[in-house]
Structures
1.
Amino acid sequence: FFEHKLGFNISFPDTSNTHFQSHAKACAVIITYLDQFIEFLTCMQQNKGSGNVSVYYMGKIRGPHAAEDNVLRLGPLHQCIIDHIDTLIDPTLVHNIGQ
């Protein structure tokens, strides 16, 4: 988003409760790019969608019947999600865009 809008990415500074300067650096970035941050957050809010995939995913990894909570062992679940998304995509439509 920021690279598209500004021509470069913004690296948001890390903050720490024990380092006052880190908060000052973060404030400086927010103040400098306030309009872009507001535009970014508005864009994210508007494009959030229904969240159905997120609810499904969170139910699978945090629900009462979650088989695994170690992200390193969630490969099969992630592959199921990828396979599902692949079935929703019609490759002929993707290849014919702009023709």
2.
Amino acid sequence: MAIFSRLFTLLALSYFAFVVQITMAGDADIVSDFIVPSNLTGGIDGNFFTFTGMRALVDADPPTNFKVSKASLAEFPALNGQSVSYAVLQFPAMTTNPPHTHPRSTELLFLLDGSLQVGFVDTTNTLFTQTLQSGDLFVFPKGLVHFQYNADAKNPALAISAFGSANAGTVSLPSTLFATGIDDNVLAISLKTDVATIQALKAGLAPKP
């Protein structure tokens, strides 16, 4: 019986450790001030900690479609281990950032200009929505499906989103469902529609020539 008792204790501790790991999932803590990429030789200076990619937005013509400009780990290697990243969201009139999730981070959106209709759905399928005005902030909890929509027929909107991860990740629901090769029958049954409708949705999301 002692063996079984010890085995049960080990299993319980392993489960507890697993739950703690899931609960604390996010960017790993680092044991140095910052992380320098291994392929970077010759030392670093202030340039390493500077991201100039957003300069292209200054005095630029506004986009005709919804546009995201990111400063995440992929674009800004100095963010590795720093648990932070940014995105600039540009919404021409009547455009949307389709429903999506960020599996590794909460999103804190700051609306700089214009108005936005925003919302998210929690794990009880409750929808929380708000109409934001310039100067408002809105938080999208980690991992939950959310969206932003500029319902203004004439004016654009501009927002900045901050993330608590250098690599928050984005899972776009339209693309994930209809542009990854999931079987038409699976989608039709799941969405309680027919294959023809699913194929029409897939065609609408296909890359334009």
